[in-house]
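Protocol step 4 of 6: structure prediction from sequence.
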Amino acid sequence: MGELVELHGVVKKFGRVAALRGVSLRLRRGEVVGLLGPNASGKTTLLKIIMGFIRPDRGVVRVLGRDPYLDPSIRARVGYVPEDVLLYDSLTVREFLYFMGRMRKMDPSTYIDRARLLATLFEIEDKMDCLVGSLSKGDRQKLALISALLHEPDVLILDEPLTSLDLVAARVLKEVLREIRSRGGGVIISTHVLSLAEAICDRIYFMNEGLIVAEGDLRSIKEAVGADEDLEEVLLKLTKKDEVLEALIRILKEEF
């Protein structure tokens, strides 16, 4: 199975702070990979390095066989939704999507049809002539997802994609990810929504303090850390927060 994304020994420091301390990761064709961990564990930095926005201090990064920092053209085959979405507020939704289609050198008939389909799927077809700046937070998130999916990318990178999405849109997104996987694309999702990771991810990378502390399918990771329940229990054990939580619950029961 071909590798869409490969990272080996990636190190990144910001001043004296080590955001990534020798991270290795891979994304194969037909795979959805989850990236989980507490805040400040290095997840967003890792995704920005995969996108080529940041250059690592050490290590090898390949996206579709190329270095994304040295060859930004590779982004034409990648879709990306950051945690903090930035859009062109002075454009209408239609103008924004058509602009993104032209930027990606898509045929007009293709991006017009694709924009209409995705707007229908994410239930914002009635907002096509509204200014982006007038959209609710949830609709802005939907627009960011549509923009990332417009050109049918080989690789989709999502940083907290369920933020502000309603239940229908969240379910549609899960089905879209399954379709990308079925046609041989690949997805990397950074998320705090453990139910999403459990439902859709083939493999999971757990990060803590700039390191990958566990990797594999959920069953093997549960067995390795001795967790019997869900991803929440796994995450607590891997970050060594389970004993802290037990102590806090004990205080709650005794003192509250």
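Step 5 (inspection) to follow. Residues 219-256 form one domain.
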